[in-house]
Amino acid sequence: MKQLTSAQVRQMYLDFFKEKEHDILESAPLIPQDDPTLLWINSGVATMKQYFDGSVVPKNRRITSSQKSIRTNDIENVGRTARHHTLFEMLGNFSVGDYFKKEAIAWAWELLTSPKWYALDPEKLYMTVYPKDPDAKKYWLEVGVKEDHIYELEDNFWDIGEGPSGPDSEIFYDRGQAMNDVAEDDPENFPGGENERYLEIWNIVFSEFNHKPDGTYEPLPHKNIDTGMGLERVVSLFQNAPTNFETDLFMPMIQATEELSGQKYGEKPELDISFKVIADHARAVTFAIGDGAIPSNEGRGYVIRRLIRRAVMHGQKLGIDQAFLYKLVPVVGKVMQSAYPEVMENAEYIEKVIHMEEDRFNDTLKDGLELLNNLIAETKEAGLTELPGKPAFKLYDTYGFPFELTEEYAEDEGMTVDKAGFDMEMQKQKDRARAARSDAKSMGVQNGLLTDITTESEYVGYAELTCDGILKDIIVDNELVDHVATGMAQVIFDKTPFYAEMGGQVADKGLIKDQDGDVVAAVEDVQHAPNGQNMHTIKVLKPMTQGQTYHLVVDQKFHDKVRKNHTATHLLDQALHDVLGEHSHQAGSLVEPTYLRFDFTNLGSVTKEQLAEIERIVNEKIWANMPVETIVTDLETAKEMGAIALFADKYGDTVRVVKAGDYSMEFCGGNHVDNTNEIGLFKIVSESGVGAGVRRIEAVTSQEAYNFLEERNQLLKDTASELKVVQIKEVPRKVEQLQAQIKELEQQKQALEDKFASQQANDVFKNVQEIAGMTLIAAQVKVSGMSQLRQLADQWKTKELSDVLVLATVTDDDKVNLITAVSPAGIKAGLKAGDLIKAIAPHVGGGGGGRPDLAQAGGKNPAGIQEALQAAATWMEK
């Protein structure tokens, strides 16, 4: 067998299919674009939904890629099995309505067995096929596969619900019984069974049916091929590795961890798990953060946080007691440099994010250990030997403690953990996550009508906003017609000045006139048809006929406002780079006529000073009268020029580069002003967070910017009038004076309240009840809130006035505050403030909790205060 590096395996796959006239598609970012059904890109085909459901027809119907992907549904298995990973690469070749089973099978066999390519031994290759797919079996036999190397399995049907589906054929490599984990006569010892002998290396899906919403299947208008070969798996073959981890994709990280820990991989099985987890998670978080994800408590940010914390915990098992994971980022970058040079380019930023998260977790870890120790102590006090599952899950979910770690701590204390209760809480979390996920379909049903429309249509809106166009296609209710009298329709012209929504810029609006100048339709929206034509959604006012020439007129005022805002987004994008750093990149945008919205990645919020500097720079560039020019060139030349490209966008051989003076240069297919001075004025309206590591700026330009500033100016004038100051510039000073007065009055009020509370305390503390051999002080007092209740509790504690204290007050907003306290003697007798507050708080319509010595609660029912105080006495009697 050939000895190949991972880089060689990847490149050989892509080169092979390039020879078969496939376009090589660069790996897309891990963060899906415009796909709410996915948290991560989780397969090669996930980046090609628009091709497979027919909403877009690719330039070349033959595509190949090596797509980085993340799956975290079985994260607990990582490190414990030979081939589970969070991040992996999926090699794939795809046909969108071009070749089908015969070619896909023949090429798979050629790549795998040809001496020029992978040169695997044909005798070691086995295939599984769907029993009702005789063609697949026939084509495998035709290329030379022996009949006893082909297995028919009912599971060989790929179906993810509504949309394209079909039978598939899986390819296995026989690694020999010596590599197996089941006996020779085990019923699972066959290709496709649960064993380590027959390694699945490739799956070819023959996508030939539409799975319809009603559950039935119908033939696809255009049949597709979708294949997936796990790079990590196939590399393990060429490097004769017992698992995926003993390959050049993981060993450098494992070796670096050996140096950091002083431990040796391969010496202790329990430590080997930790080495594998760290290597796997280091790869995943490095790529995810490089693609714009940021650790947080929700969505994909939560996944990143969890991976980092799992790696840190496994580092501790190896004896690493300080931040270390960030040090593996350049190791990952070097391993993947041939295919992903951007990792090394962004290494400093990625290291910074991981290091910050490690430090944050180390602080959290101390709190978690304290919680765990308290849980163990409380469980022992209750005479139990099993830690409950709910708090064990909290340790896992909030503090990052793996369940196994909690079990280990419990075992040290001679205790167990309620695994069933833990699993129940875990399932609740999964259910919540599933409910929060969009119910949008993962892939739409293929629309053969739109896919088959190949009419040529030219967009002329860069140069002119009116033109004559021949009406080529009319679609009404998803049917092609040659005439429409009234109502809604979709139409395509041979030529149009209407911009189709793309790149964040909204579509043009306007009118369609006949040759007599009469308005026959209003253009309400324009989108790209599957084959790229500008497809107009129109409201038909007078009859329109296919083949007739019409006069198309864009709403110029609407269009001019949009292009001013679009150019402003380019200036804003570059200003963000200048002020925040190169790590900041675009995460989405919207260009409307009345405002612009720009999403970008950043570790934290943008300060007021940074926002002011960003705004200053953009306006400076507007007033610099910079010419805005468009350069049409090839993709490589544009990249060499330094134009900013969006990773998520797909570019053809010819691209448009929009250049604003010497300041900004970006790939862009949108409309722009001729000179920055046309924008007039730029004003940021708001800055906010919209997700983990993603911020949003909303801004206005031109007339809307003037109107915004004028409104603020009027507000200042009105404020000056209310404050009775002559000039606006005196407003800040007057406000400072008023704030100082308010602060002084609040201090005086607080002093009076404290004095009044102390006076009440003298009366309240005299009323001591004796109950069941213990003493209780329970009373309602008139104080401002919880802060003063705590002050009274501190006085009670210092003077040792009783065993139990219960105080209640009603706040200014008619809410109830309750506090309970128990003396050391009371705690020793088995009384706990936390238990007491839980028993009495329901009487005031609330709830709370706390420590054995002090607890507090809030409620909504002041009328129940006396019942709550009486309930305290009843509780003590028990």
Describe the protein.
The protein is of the alpha+beta class. The protein has five domains: 244 residues, Bira Bifunctional Protein, Domain 2 (BirA Bifunctional Protein, domain 2, 2-Layer Sandwich); 147 residues, no CATH class; 99 residues, Beta Barrel (Elongation Factor Tu (Ef-tu), domain 3), CATH 2.40.30; 150 residues, Threonyl-tRNA Synthetase, Chain A, domain 2; 118 residues, Diaminopimelate Epimerase, Chain A, domain 1 (Roll), CATH 3.10.310.40. The chain has 24 helices and 35 strands. Strands 1, 2, 3, 4, 5, 6, 7, 8 and 9 form a nine-stranded mixed sheet that branches. It has a six-stranded antiparallel beta barrel with strand order 13-16-20-19-18-22. A six-stranded mixed sheet has the order 30-31-32-33-35-34, sandwiched between helices. Strand 28 and strand 29 form a beta hairpin. The protein is globular. The N and C termini lie far apart (79 Å). It comes from Ligilactobacillus ceti DSM 22408. Belongs to the class-II aminoacyl-tRNA synthetase family. Keywords: Aminoacyl-tRNA synthetase, ATP-binding, Coiled coil, Cytoplasm, Ligase, Metal-binding, Nucleotide-binding, Protein biosynthesis, RNA-binding, tRNA-binding, Zinc. Its cofactor is Zn(2+). Its main location: cytoplasm.
